[in-house]
Amino acid sequence: MTVDSTDIERRQFLTGTAAVLGGLGAGVAAIPFVSTFQPSERAKAIGAPVEANIDQIEPGQRVTYKWRGKPVWIIRRTEEQLAALEQMRDILADPDSASSVQPEFAENSWRSLNQEYLVLVGICTHLGCSPSFRPLAGDVVMGADSVGGFYCPCHGSKFDLSGRVYAGVPAPTNMDVPPYKFLNESRILIGELAEGEGA
């Protein structure tokens, strides 16, 4: 019996097509299984790290993510705001963040890994209220000498644009800085420190 070359080509084509369709089907079927490896919403709520995209944040803008059931703010500070941080020292209770909850890298004026981006737990350290974001210099609520910051309406606590508490207000410490690390220039991971960083 002779086999026509057309039949062989047709058989090879059908075999190849079946293999491709089978591979696509297996890939589509695997999607639900792969998604089970991602942390659930419940796991995120109890402390799983959360990825944050920072490349769309404009200078002077704040975005909010949720980690461990708390708001985490990411603020992209302007050059003017960064330059003004040292001017605030005289009116702050803990300008060097010596007695605050934060990773070691935050014991400085800007309290962050990258000076431009501030990452804070958005909760007042007095009674757990959420302060309002007051980024403008000379804000009426913050005071004429202010270069911007955070104001807690519950009992009047004030913080600068590094989350450092003003002296003489009810809040006892600076706002908390959560553990985080940069994954690349546009993404950070909240809830995990970079290897070698102290807690």
List the helices and strands and how they pair.
Layout: H1 5-35, H2 41-45, E1 50-53, E2 62-67, E3 70-76, H3 79-84, E4 117-121, E5 132-134, E6 149-151, E7 158-160, E8 180-182, E9 187-190
Antiparallel strand pairs: 1-9, 2-3, 3-4, 5-6, 6-7, 8-9
Would you give an account of this structure?
- The mean pLDDT is about 85.
- The longest helix is centred in the first third of the chain and has 31 residues, at about 5-35.
- The chain is α+β, with helices and mostly antiparallel strands and about 200 residues long.
- It has helices spanning about 5-35, 40-45, 80-85; strands at about 50-55, 60-65, 70-75, 115-120, 130-135, 150, 160, 180, 185-190.
The largest sheet, given as strand count, sense and whether it forms a barrel, is: 3 strands, antiparallel
Give the low-pLDDT segments. none
C-alpha geometry: elongated
Strand composition percent: 15-25%
> End-to-end distance, in Å?
78 Å
CATH architectural designation of the largest domain: 3-layer Sandwich
Question: What labels would you give this structure?
Answer:
2 domains, 199 residues, three-stranded antiparallel beta sheet, alpha+beta, Rieske Iron-sulfur Protein
